Amino acid sequence: MHTPPERRALPPAAGMKAEGECIRQSWALQPGVPCGIIKGMGRRNLVYRAMACLMYAAVALLTIEIFFALLSGRAFLWPEWALIALLMPLLVLSANALLLGALQSAAARAQVSRRSLWLLFWLYSCLLLYLLFLSRSGSFLSDWETYWNYSMVNLVPFRTVLRYVNALRRGVIPMVALANLAGNLLLFAPLGALMPLLFPALRRFWRFLALLLAVLLAVEAIQMALRCGSCDVDDVLLNLIGATTAYFAIRIPPVARWLRRRYYLWESGMAARAGAAAIHQ
Fold this sequence. Notes:
Elements: H1 15-28, H2 35-71, H3 78-102, H4 106-132, H5 144-149, E1 153-154, H6 159-170, H7 174-187, H8 189-198, H9 205-226, E2 231-232, H10 233-249, H11 253-261, H12 270-280
């Protein structure tokens, strides 16, 4: 019985050249693989890694540019925030897809995808922190009397929603009403997808719902304490609908299959099984 040669772990200092050599050697163990294909794979992997690095660098530069623009007092409009919210995840996901094409083992691909999810989570958290609190810092000093007189607190469900729906019907401030309704629905939707992907324990709906409600209520309480936004039960309801829609969207079979192929939906025991399979190949 033929025993394959032992695969030794390469030191990190060996770099991409040593890893490429390891890949070529592993392919050389398989009969019928031309040398030209092996060299082509090494060049392709190098190109994929370089393109992924450029995309991550673009994300870093864009983040720094936004940070210094906000420090200088520039106010971004909602279309600009929407463009940023689309562009940055697109760059991160594209870079992750390139790295998946350059890596060989399932465990390494899962690790890269998980790091990409964490990067998206922290970028989203910073954006959320700014939109909910820092962008409204001008109202921190308003007194309680002014806060209550402007009806910034609403504890009656659907009162604000119906007011905005009626405004849309009458054509009064339609953009403001639409921005508030759509914005509250979409604001926490990424959290509804990222929480179960990053934390397998939150894939049980009751755990997810309990934590989500705690986060939403904490946000409203902080906004009321700092007087930097309205404390509205309708905000909680709309945020809840948007987040739970995203939670169930990633469970749709075609979406779940795509997430598994990209190693975003990764069970805790799958990494160990993939590593054991790689050792016995």
